[in-house]
Amino acid sequence: MQFFIAASLLAATASAASPVFNVSKFAASCAPHSSLCDYSFGVVQASAGESTPVDCSAQVVSDGSLPAVTDGTCKDSSRTWTITKNDDGGFTLTVSQAVTPSTNLKGTFVAPASDISKEDTGASSQEKYIGSTDFGLASA
């Protein structure tokens, strides 16, 4: 009986830790001497057995710092995404997909400030994401 309880708890913990979405080739950077910043990545729904990532991207006007994104879209998909700036200087990526008209499947990834570099190029400076390019999004 104790073995069954331990196995059940382990299985519950493992499934709770499984990502909702998997992101690949994540990139975020601002162009030198420009007011444009780009975000791009691929995403698959981890539990649906998808193997071909859906392409998601946005080009946003900024002062050189990686900006928030409130209306990110993915090509040929109903998935949407946002970037929320965190108080520590990092950001949170959230990907959403409608499951029913009133329910969304959401996954999040928090990038700490240490994953963002700032490069000075003369009269301007730009931020760039330097963290892992492939990661899972935990249930939100």
TrEMBL record:
Residues 117-140 are annotated as: Disordered. Residues 1-16 form the signal peptide. It comes from the Eukaryota. Keywords: Signal. This is Glyco protein.
